[in-house]
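Lecture notes, continued. The same structure-token format from the folding unit now serves as the input rather than the output. Read the line below as a description of shape only.
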């Protein structure tokens, strides 16, 4: 087990919980409002994509099940998707070993890439924060800016 990753992912979960709580305060139609000029087009689709990516990358390490067409259109479905993500990360933290030992992953088209188990956990986390920034920009454009701290940034260790 990688204790540092467990601590870090705990902060990620607390940050995500704050963002999901904020999304719950928005009018229901805002969650699915389409804006084709934004990646993934809606807040619900952005957060669904984040969950999809965790499940896809962790499955390459043998935990989690990919859900390539996951589209949670309400907060209960989003929370359920992230519960599956959290369970997959927990399995990874409990079962992965040789965290930095390279292995080759072969994609269905034959392309190969060298990865590590640490990367399989860290990549979707950095990806999540990238897309959270996009989601907050989209919410501003839709007239529903985030109320402040913490926004897409990582919560501090002492925050509630």
């Amino acid at each position: 087990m990688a204790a540092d990753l467990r601590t870090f992912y705990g902060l990620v979960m607390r940050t995500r919980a704050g963002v999901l709580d904020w999304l719950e305060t928005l009018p229901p139609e805002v969650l699915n409002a389409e804006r084709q000029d934004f990646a993934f087009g809606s807040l619900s689709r952005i957060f669904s994509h984040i969950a999809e990516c965790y499940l896809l990358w962790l499955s390459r390490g043998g935990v989690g099940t990919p859900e390539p067409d996951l589209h949670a259109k309400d907060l209960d479905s989003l929370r359920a998707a992230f519960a599956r993500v959290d369970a997959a990360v927990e399995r990874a933290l409990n079962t992965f070993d040789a965290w930095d030992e390279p292995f080759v992953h072969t994609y269905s088209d034959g392309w190969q890439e060298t990865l590590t188990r640490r990367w399989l956990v860290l990549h979707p986390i950095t990806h999540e924060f990238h897309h959270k920034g996009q989601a907050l920009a989209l919410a501003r454009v839709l007239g529903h800016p985030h109320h402040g701290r913490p926004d897409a940034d990582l919560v501090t260790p002492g925050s509630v």
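Point for the exam: The first helix runs from residue 3 to 25.
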